[in-house]
């Protein structure tokens, strides 16, 4: 693979949502991104020159669901900084692709892939979920009630071959898509996270899909197992830190898949910094260390295969809300942790809407203009692709987090008060939760 991402020169300005900075061209990266820790920079993971690292997943609503003019507006903005874009084959904005055996419906996938092409994306497809007839339901278009009740059901074992054939058909139709993730969070294979997952069933499905896609498209890159690395306050797992303890059932499932897989071009996980009980340990910023710790654990145990974060989350799902500057600051630091940990890829789950308030959305529902979360993803793709050479730059006040490459510096104030500090030999003052980009 030889993916080239061209850096875009930005004009000195204040970005939306309290993000400020002065702009300089990033120049050509000369080495892959190293893993940065406090006081040390480890060897980088194996990545290809220009790999953007950052991107997002299209969900139930995206730019192609509104109007042609709206789609052109969003696509034009996204095309300024090419990044990864991911789409599921069923659900999350796509109708049943094979309502009857051998009868395909490609309209929704075609529409999403057209948007990706129009916006200059590096496209990714998630091979999930399965048509109803593969999991005990009827043939034909999916009924309205079945979307909520059965979308996340796994195909029955007797239909694993059918799903593998569908995956091969997808890969054959979309020859410009090179990257495929198999399934999503062990849906249907792990209904009770307090108990072991059906990792043998998932691995059997994965191996059939892997073989079918590689047979149809030898150039395709296939990864799994797309397991959620959930964590709790306590537990016996070896993967632990101040942020909590990763569920041993997740590690067992990963270990079985990794030992018994036919092959993998990259490994896929997802996870959240809050625990399953919605705790942020020791706080909302300290909890983000989980992303770097999990990435390091995976790199060590997989022989340094590229680690993909298919999703990552940082706000508790218990009704917690933060004002926008704080939410953005936490998002920015979470991305810093993924970069330092050497994650090869990180896909933002874009919670888009057609209208109304849209917290965390990448573009505004009414106008298609970039929103602050989208600006963050874009700026990280521009300045910190996987080929960026990270440099260890300290702040005299630890409340200001720093991520640096030779030509650009990102600073984030993690405090709810102004903070002054010396960063990279310069005195700076950042307002509460301010995100500041600065040329070096």
From TrEMBL:
UniProt biased composition (Low complexity): 26-40
Name under which the protein is recorded: Xylan 1,4-beta-xylosidase
Similarity comment text for this entry: Belongs to the glycosyl hydrolase 39 family.
Domain of life: Bacteria
Keyword Hydrolase found: yes
InterPro entries xrefs: GH, GH39_cat, Glycosyl_Hydrolase_39
GO molecular function: hydrolase activity, hydrolyzing O-glycosyl compounds
Region (Disordered): 14-43
Taxonomic lineage: Bacteria, Bacillati, Actinomycetota, Actinomycetes, Streptosporangiales
Entry keyword Metal-binding: no
Domain Glycosyl hydrolases family 39 N-terminal catalytic: 105-231
Pfam (any one): Glyco_hydro_39
Keywords: Glycosidase, Hydrolase
């Amino acid at each position: 693979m030889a993916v080239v991402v061209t850096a875009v020169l930005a004009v000195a300005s204040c970005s939306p949502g309290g993000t400020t900075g002065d702009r300089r061209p990033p120049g050509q990266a000369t080495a892959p991104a190293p893993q940065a820790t406090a006081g040390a920079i480890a060897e980088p993971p194996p990545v290809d020159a220009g790999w953007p690292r950052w991107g997002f997943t299209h969900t139930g609503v995206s730019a192609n669901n509104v109007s042609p003019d709206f789609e052109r507006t969003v696509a034009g903005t996204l095309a300024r900084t090419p990044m990864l874009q991911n789409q599921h084959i069923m659900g999350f904005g796509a109708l049943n692709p094979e309502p009857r055996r051998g009868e395909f419906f490609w309209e929704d996938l075609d529409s999403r892939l057209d948007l990706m092409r129009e916006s200059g994306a590096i496209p990714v497809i998630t091979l999930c979920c399965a048509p109803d007839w593969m999991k005990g339901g009827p043939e034909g278009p999916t009924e309205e009630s079945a979307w909520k009740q059965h979308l996340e059901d796994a195909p029955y074992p007797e239909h694993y071959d059918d799903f593998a054939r569908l995956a091969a058909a997808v890969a054959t139709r979309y020859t410009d898509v090179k990257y495929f993730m198999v399934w999503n969070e062990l849906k249907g294979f792990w209904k009770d996270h307090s108990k072991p997952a059906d990792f043998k069933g998932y691995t059997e499905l994965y191996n059939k899909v892997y073989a079918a896609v590689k047979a149809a498209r030898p150039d395709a890159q296939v990864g799994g197992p797309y397991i959620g690395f959930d964590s709790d306050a306590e537990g016996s797992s070896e993967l632990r830190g101040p942020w909590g303890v990763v569920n041993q059932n997740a590690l067992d499932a990963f270990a079985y898949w990794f030992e018994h897989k036919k092959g993998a071009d990259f490994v896929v996980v997802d996870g959240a910094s809050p625990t399953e009980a919605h705790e942020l340990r020791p706080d909302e910023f300290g909890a983000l260390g989980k992303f770097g710790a999990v990435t390091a654990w995976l790199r060590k145990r997989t022989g340094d295969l590229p680690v993909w974060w298919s999703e990552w989350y940082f706000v508790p799902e218990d009704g917690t809300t933060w004002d926008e500057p704080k939410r953005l600051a936490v998002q920015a630091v979470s991305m810093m942790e993924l970069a330092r940990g050497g994650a090869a890829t990180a896909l933002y789950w874009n919670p888009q809407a057609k209208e109304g308030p849209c917290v965390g959305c990448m573009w505004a529902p009414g106008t298609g203009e970039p929103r602050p979360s989208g600006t963050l993803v874009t700026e990280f793709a521009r300045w910190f692709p996987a080929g960026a050479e990270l440099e260890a730059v300290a702040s005299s006040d630890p409340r200001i987090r720093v991520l640096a490459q030779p030509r650009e510096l990102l600073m984030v104030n993690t405090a709810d008060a102004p903070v002054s500090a010396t960063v990279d030999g310069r005195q700076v003052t950042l307002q509460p939760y301010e995100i500041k980009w600065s040329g070096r």
